[in-house]
Amino acid sequence: MTTRRNLLEKGRALLGLAALGAVPTVARAETFEVTKSDAEWKKLLSPAQYDVLRHEGTERAFTSPLNEEKHAGLFHCAGCDLPVYSSKAKFDSGTGWPSFTSALNKAVGTKTDRAFFMSRTEVHCRRCGGHLGHIFDDGPAPTGKRHCINGVSLKFVPGAVEVSG
Question: Fewer CB within 10 A of the terminal residue: the chain, N end or C end?
Fold first, then answer.
């Protein structure tokens, strides 16, 4: 029999679980080559870049000019200037964010993101730890992956080419 007390206890338990699952975490167990104080990041980045790169925010869909970028070149991390994606891997996913089938070799790291009642793969710059976006399993060949990246976390360098090594 459901009592008022049982309902209140269940409600509190659900609220506690919601609070745990709905708040993105920004603490990282990893250490990165490029580290800066919070004040240094705020000085270096625009408010939108700071929110996305340092606090795992998300820009509004269809707001980034990089979503329409079609030239050859490389997309660099806006936080530390590391080349992270090639225009060769870019495709139009129709989602409103720049999308790529893969990152450049050894350019990004990933972690499980359990925020907002779901499990996703978060992708970040391997050099500064800046949040770039998420990786989904609904992309085209050859990888079947869609790296859904916040344009504000990138800067485009036209004509740049990937250097192996």
Answer: N
User: Average pLDDT of 42-66?
Assistant: 96
Amino acid at site 117:
F
Domain assignment of residue 91, given as a range = 26-158
Summarised one tens digit per residue, pLDDT across range 18-46 is 444 443 444 445 789 999 999 999 999 99
Question: What is the total count of domains within the chain?
Answer: 1
Q: How far apart are CA 67 and CA 161, in angstroms?
A: 19
**Residue 105 has what DSSP assignment?**
T
Strand 120-125 relative to strand 131-136: parallel, antiparallel, unpaired? antiparallel
Q: Which two tokens stand for residue 51?
A: 């929110």
With a CB cutoff of 8 Å and minimum separation 6, the contacts of 140 are: 91, 101
Answer whether 0.90 is exceeded by the pTM.
no
Stretch 11-15: mean pLDDT, rounded? Answer: 48
Catalytic annotation, residues: 148
Q: Cis (ω within 30 of 0) for the bond into 65?
A: no
